[in-house]
Structures are given as structure tokens and as C-alpha cells.
Amino acid sequence: MSDSTVAASPATPGASVAAAGAPGADADVLASFEAHRRELCAYAYRMLGSSFEAEDAVQETFTRAWKSYGSFEGRASLRSWLYRIATNVCLDMLDGPQRRARPMDLSGPSRPDSPLPAPQPDYVWVEPIPNALAFGADPAEHAATKDSLRLAFVAACQHLPATQRAILIMREVLRFSANETAEALTMSPASVNSALQRARATMSKVRPTATDDYDETDENQRKLVDEFVTAFEAYDMDALTALLKADVALSMPPIELWVRGPENVAAFMRGHGSGCEGSRMVRLEGANGLPAFGHYKRTDTPGVYAPWSITVLEFDGPVISGLNFFLDTERLFPLFGLPMELREPAS
After folding, report:
1. What is the pTM of this model?
2. Whether residue 32 sits in one domain with residue 161
């Protein structure tokens, strides 16, 4: 079975605001809100690091917007007004010391034969987001914003205090002016600019220097993805490691352990990961603007496969720099529109 055999349909991006408590709502008003759903979801995801919390934040934004729509005077655009509400929602949700992270942020690399630690709660981790939740139909918008949805960028943003995080995203990703940002946060433009400088300084220290420079139009990178799937499904570790960067990182949230380097990746897959032999990958539309797969493992029943991970690849030019296996299949497979069982076609 190749990765193209089964097509997965992403989950529908959220429920309508009418379903959240606005019976008899004016259809035009609701439609005007919905037109901004994806970009607001992407904004909330950058702030919160979780697809699920981002969807909740957008729903709460629309609920608050509906309740206060009568006071909307139109001095700013509807988009700016919704972002102001969304920012306040996210700041309310971030009221606490907890920040999400990747395994690489919490500890150094482990030996491939190290005992597997117990899984950590889901709120510890930066989670993947389906492309369908974060990107609109405009290719130019996709190209302009995809880098700011990368796992590395979102994880780096988690090092910022919540208000600095909002300012950095609004100013440098969304290109809001200092005045627009100040109005959204009830601050002065001077305070916004000062906070932006502090946020930039922090990001320069914590953000990886390498970029996840995946380009879906690059034929060589598309071939690299195909070669990865072929090597993994064949469980050919020699072929697989030939595709990896020298300091490639393999991680498996919600497990904190991670390993670095092609040889350690191969040793891990032959040891703890040996149950993945014979697994199948279902290609997704993507996650965080990167190639992603629904990863299924064999079961004791011939021809039947069970969910194992949402697998997201990161790149550094012509090599794979990150293998991210998100193991919380009970939550993530429905989010990505994947079935909880995969069967080989009847012969």
C-alpha cells in the first residue's frame, strides 16, 4: 500500500457561531465572522501552541463578537476588531506559568536504548495543526505565513510572555501597525515598540538558526518525501538514514525522550521502534505547512492497521532535519479526518 492509496479528509474547521448560542443570528454578520475563521485560528495557534485550544479560542472570539456586535462602530475594520477580541481571549487562556514545548526544549538527547519515560499531559506539548485549519485558499497568503506556523517558530514563541507574544505575531506576522497593535492591547505605541524589541531579542536567542525550508513546489523535496515513505514502509534503515541531516532530531510527544543523529535514529527504530516495521503511511494535506502523514502500525489481524502517530517532517534544504511522531492518536486522528482503523484492500 502506498501513501497515496487512502485520501484523508481534514476535519471541518470548527463549529458555526450560531451553534454556540446565537439563535436567529443575522446570516450576513455570521458570514462576515466566518470569513476570518482560518486566519484567526492560525493566530490563536501561534499564541497557544494547540490546535484544539486555537479552535476553542476562535469559537469564544465569535461568541464575544456576536454578543457585543451592537457596539461595533466601524471605526476600525471588522478584521481588526475580531483580532482585538481574539487577542484578549488568548491572553485570558494564557493566564498562568505553563508554556508548551517540544521534547528538544526540555532536555538533551537520550541514548536510543534509554528506557521510555511515562507520557506527559497533552498541555505540555506544542501540537501540530492541519493545514486546512490554518491556511486559506490564497497561495500567496500560504507562502507568506507558512514559516510562522512551523513547529520551531511556534515553540520559540512559547518563550515569550503572553503580551510580547501577541505583539510579535501582530507586528511581524500579521503586519499590523504599531497603532493598530496598541489599540488591540490597550497600550501606547511606544510601549508596543519597546515590547517588540524585547521579544525580538528573546527570539534571536531561542529560535533555531536553521529554517524549515520546505517548498511543496520543489521537485527534489517532493522526491525526498516519497523516498522517506518508501524507506519507512520497507523499514530499510540504511535508505532512511541516507535522507537525514547529521543532527536530525526524532521526537515522540507526549513522551519526553528524543534522539539525535541518523545512527541513533536507526538504532532507536530497530529497538524501541521495532513495532513500526510493516507500518503504513497515509499522506495528509499537511500540518504546519509541512509534509504530514497518518501513521498506522500492523495489528495481530492480517491486513488491519491501527493508529500510531501523526508524523510531521521538517527539512533543511535537501535533507530531513526533524522526524516528529505525535502519538496522541485519540485526539489527533479525528482532527486530521483520519479513520481509527486502516484495512488493506481486498484482493
Report:
1. 0.90
2. yes
